[in-house]
Amino acid sequence: MIPYTVNIKLAARTLTGTLHLQNKTAVDWGWQGLIAQGCHSSILIIDPKTAQTIQVLERHKAVVVKVKWSRENYYHSLSSPYSLRLASADASGKIIVWDVVSGNAHCEIQEHSKPIQDMDWLWNQDVSRDLLLAVHPPNYIVLWNGDTGAKLWKKSYAENILSFSFDPFEPSNLALLTSEGIVFITDFSHSKPPGSGGKKVYIASPHASPAHSKPAAQPTGAKKALNKVKVLITNEKPTAEAVTLNDCLQLSYLPSKRNHMLLLYPREILILDLELSQTVGVVAIERSGVPFIQVVPCAQRDALFCLHENGCVTLRLCRSSSPSPDEDPEQSSHELVYDLRSQCDAIRVTKTVRPYRVVICPVNENSAALVVSDGRVMLWELRAHASKTSVNPSSGPSPLYSPVSFCGTPLGQDQKYVQDLSLNSMIGHSMMSGAEPQGTRPQQEVHLKFLLTGLLSGLPLPPFAIRMCPPLTTKNINYYQPLLAVGTSNGSVLVYNLTSGLLHKELSVHSFEVRGIEWVSLTGFLSFATSSPNNLGLVRNELQHVDLPTGRCFAFRGERGNDESAIEMIKVSHLKQYLVVVFRDKPLELWDIRTGTLLREMAKNFPTVTALEWSPSHNLKSLKKKQLAAREAMARQTTLADTEQSSVESSVISLLQDAESKAELSQSISAREHFVFTDTDGQVYHITVEGNTVRDGARIPPDGSMGSIACIAWKGDTLVLGDVDGNLNFWDLKARLSRGVPTHRGWVKKIRFAPGKGNQKLLVMYTDGAEVWDTKEVQMVSSLRVGRNVSYRILDIDWCTSDKVVLASDDGCVRVLEMAMKSASYRMDEQDLTDPVWCPYLLPPRAGLTLKAFLLLQPWSGNFTMDITHIDYKEKEELKGLIQEQLNSLSNDIKLILQDPELNLLQRCILVSRLFGDEADLQFWTVAAHYLQSFAQARQLGVPGSEGQAQAPTPHSHLDICHDILCESSFFQRFQLERVHLQEVKRSSYEHTKKCADQLLLLGQTDRAVQLLLETSADNPSYYCDSLKACLVTTITSSGPSQSTIKLVATNMIANGKLAEGVQLLCLIDKAADACRYLQTYGEWNRAAWLAKVRLNAAESSDVLKRWAEHLCSPQVNQKSKAILVLLSLGCFHKVGEMLHSMRYFDCAALFIEACLKYGVMEANEVTNKLIGATFADYARLLRSMGLREGAALWASRAGGAGEEILEQLFQGEGAGPDLSPGEDDIQTPPVTTD
């Protein structure tokens, strides 16, 4: 038996189409740099940089309603490598956690059978990075272990939960958006469910309640409108007509500043300050504007990406709150104002096409992906364009300036940089607009624009008719392309290349739904469509011939086709010579495809055709043999007769004859072909076609066991008939045997033999699924049934290779499956992508870490290189190849920067952590870069104090306020004062006023506090108390006795449970350090850190924060990563190095100490040398284990005594041959710094 032909390897894949309404919220852009999107029950993984689908995950039976990438805010090593992990939840309540690269499910979780409302991974990664919180309708929140699928706890609430949001600054805070209001949970923890029912807050509509407005100058127009929307947040349940929360679309904490939250309504965004539970900003849409659907707040800048109902994405930036000199400071900040800075084009919204969701790249926050209901994904990038300095700055929002630093360090004179790397490298601090920047370059004003950089589109709405192009043979192997034609309901034909899964061509061929397609060559096909019937039952038929390379398309039947019976099917003969067109109520037509002529229109009394198939047998070979023989005889005769003639002439004659016979061969050899068909009684007719003669052959009487025959398939000596009752009849023509098999599956819609010589597999389609049969053994190989294995209905089937089938289904997808027809995800590494994708997460764990080390440790022996083969790296060639592919896929801009000698170590670390989407690394290096530079600057200017922070002079820039407590004290104080000023302007009740006065006292703003205390009205129960307090605040003198009395009263208050009041009194007498100590004793660590930042001098505040860092390191709190950041902000660099080393973060520790030495904030002495030696030696060992021997040798040589042993092993144990001698010379030279 001849083995089957081997096909070009096609991956199993899914071509997806339009989305289901429930897919609306199922999209997420992860730190890993990829977008996950639900499409019916599948999940697409999209690479936004190249706009390709690189994986489709199939396992859900129901519609996917949520997808969430796991966070990357932990240290990556071999035990916890860079890996792609995704959680997805569907409408039946099932959650699956995926390993995306292999396409396998880690674990499956099921609690109830209702759609999951919301889910997210816990971000406090020192606990465990496998924990997943999900909302199971109607009112449960459940914490799952996403690795094992174990349930940790479950808690129910009184109202239905719609969604939730984690506080990005405090892991124990969680806010739930419920059907009636908001529930704030402050004791969220992974170990036990929240104890209380949380604090419920209701939102009263601004129109239903009287406005508590303080008498002020009457505002005009727009201001008035904004005051109206001042929303009151109350703790009482509002009356029925006041409930407006049900139209609240979304609630999110702001990641850019602590304790702020946004609420989204169709026509406005409210910004709440949670300390006051008070609206401090409103973004409202004018009456003619387009309503919001969704808003995504940014972390790097106080900015909002908003999606509107017309598919327009807008970027709004918070206006700088520092008042400009010519403005009255009272007027300046009545609101947080978000100015519109950029917007992209809208899409055309129709009944079926509407925008669903927008997702923002979390690493760089400067690109957005818009998901549209028709399956399109539009990729927008934000670009900064330099603009001329405006002459009249007062006209619009204040200008934006680009920062004068790159990756956390001021730019060198001729340093290469990419301005559009991330949002914070495009726009400088808005707070800095008043201050004069320092730096080598002048500030450049910029404008922001959205640019469409990618578009993915899906299949149109079903139904589909699909047909695979003719199979691969030995003759066409050099130019074969596996093309699949998909006919759609709007009359166009889409041609997909199945190697890449990309759309090859889209051709608008018909004006009605395409009913069928038949290929006539590898580059051309015929397709037909029929209009809906008129009152006589007649239709307009279209039969078009399409040539793919040129796109030329013509009506194959010429003028025919108007007002006739509908075409039922078209069948092309095996040699692509003839075409049979079968009509519903009219005899069939027989055409010659090569000439486009009608050979025969059958007589009126011709039987009605129910099924028809061409025979694979023909006489082309014998014809060719006969022709060749005739030609040889002719040639022989001529040479014998004309031997006298000159040889020149004879050669000319033979050439002419040759040309003639070739022309004959291609034109007029008409091989004999036959077809069989059945009539309504089940009788089988046999008809032969040769040239333009048509002969009727034998007739075979019907088989009694079969019903009306619906389809026929013929290959080799096997003929298979299928009927409307689900019986299959297998005829062996050689042995003249027939065998009937009842499948009990109803109407047999289609049967098709697989391509390939001797391959007798048969694909059968029923109304409720499909089966693959082996006709040799007459047994079923595999089966697919709607409702049992899959949730979709099959619309059309075909073979795409000898062992893979392609199915079109009513969920709008076309799936290429193995013969077993198990829908499965494919392995990503087996795919042929058209464009290479930069994603280190696709590499095996070890290779991913090697790639990172390769980029961090440039230059290698003095050379900057992007070629891994240039360095001494011992590893399997295929792994090297994979790493090199990743390096090659980096953009040229990034490659240039990575090879720029001006790029210093800190910038390199920040840039690489950005490229890898490594959240933990990025945060560590951003804070480290900032404080290393500010302490180095302070040291140069001779400011004393190395470990306890001596107040450094204002550095070149601040850390962004999203780093909260880690910012410099001066900047932090200014921010808090601005904030309390805003709260004061917005307060609307006595409660608010009291809170503001308390804040002002803590901040030391006594005069303003006294004014607020005196505002209390006489009928208020606290009137007497507040008046006395005001007197106390104004009369406090620093005399000994009064101080000691107040201190005594304060300590008594604290002892009796009035902590806040006691702390206030201590702050009044400048004993804030004691106040911090009391706060820490009573477990108010965050409050103490805040107070230390705003009230204490550097040395005292440093003590408080160090105690906090110790507390964070304790085993019951276990937030070492946060403690490291706190210590960095205090300049305790030696301690940080020790902690990194003890936590076994060897690469981080070694590079950090290297940076400290370079900036001169760590001296080499006995204490530090021990740490340096140990760290460098451990890093060398790590590099050696990765195979980077050259790097290992370099770090070992710098580790002093600790590294000698490693060096010896490197040059002995690993066959120190001639190839290592150049390396040894390198080592003897003084150590090369990696700058």
From TrEMBL:
<keyword id="KW-0206">Cytoskeleton</keyword>
<dbReference type="GO" id="GO:0048513">
    <property type="term" value="P:animal organ development"/>
</dbReference>
<keyword id="KW-0968">Cytoplasmic vesicle</keyword>
<dbReference type="Pfam" id="PF23752">
    <property type="entry name" value="Beta-prop_WDR11_2nd"/>
</dbReference>
<dbReference type="GO" id="GO:0005634">
    <property type="term" value="C:nucleus"/>
</dbReference>
<keyword id="KW-0853">WD repeat</keyword>
<dbReference type="GO" id="GO:0031410">
    <property type="term" value="C:cytoplasmic vesicle"/>
</dbReference>
<feature type="region of interest" description="Disordered">
    <location>
        <begin position="1213"/>
        <end position="1235"/>
    </location>
</feature>
<dbReference type="InterPro" id="IPR036322">
    <property type="entry name" value="WD40_repeat_dom_sf"/>
</dbReference>
<keyword id="KW-0597">Phosphoprotein</keyword>
<keyword id="KW-0963">Cytoplasm</keyword>
<dbReference type="InterPro" id="IPR039694">
    <property type="entry name" value="WDR11"/>
</dbReference>
<feature type="domain" description="WDR11 TPR">
    <location>
        <begin position="979"/>
        <end position="1158"/>
    </location>
</feature>
<dbReference type="InterPro" id="IPR015943">
    <property type="entry name" value="WD40/YVTN_repeat-like_dom_sf"/>
</dbReference>
<keyword id="KW-0539">Nucleus</keyword>
<feature type="domain" description="WDR11 second beta-propeller">
    <location>
        <begin position="481"/>
        <end position="822"/>
    </location>
</feature>
<dbReference type="Pfam" id="PF23753">
    <property type="entry name" value="TPR_WDR11"/>
</dbReference>
<dbReference type="GO" id="GO:0060271">
    <property type="term" value="P:cilium assembly"/>
</dbReference>
<dbReference type="InterPro" id="IPR001680">
    <property type="entry name" value="WD40_rpt"/>
</dbReference>
<keyword id="KW-0333">Golgi apparatus</keyword>
<dbReference type="GO" id="GO:0005794">
    <property type="term" value="C:Golgi apparatus"/>
</dbReference>
<protein>
    <recommendedName>
        <fullName>WD repeat-containing protein 11</fullName>
    </recommendedName>
</protein>
<dbReference type="InterPro" id="IPR011044">
    <property type="entry name" value="Quino_amine_DH_bsu"/>
</dbReference>
<dbReference type="InterPro" id="IPR057852">
    <property type="entry name" value="Beta-prop_WDR11_1st"/>
</dbReference>
<dbReference type="InterPro" id="IPR057853">
    <property type="entry name" value="Beta-prop_WDR11_2nd"/>
</dbReference>
<dbReference type="Pfam" id="PF23751">
    <property type="entry name" value="Beta-prop_WDR11_1st"/>
</dbReference>
<keyword id="KW-0677">Repeat</keyword>
<dbReference type="InterPro" id="IPR057854">
    <property type="entry name" value="TPR_WDR11"/>
</dbReference>
<feature type="domain" description="WDR11 first beta-propeller">
    <location>
        <begin position="22"/>
        <end position="314"/>
    </location>
</feature>
<dbReference type="GO" id="GO:0005930">
    <property type="term" value="C:axoneme"/>
</dbReference>
<keyword id="KW-0966">Cell projection</keyword>
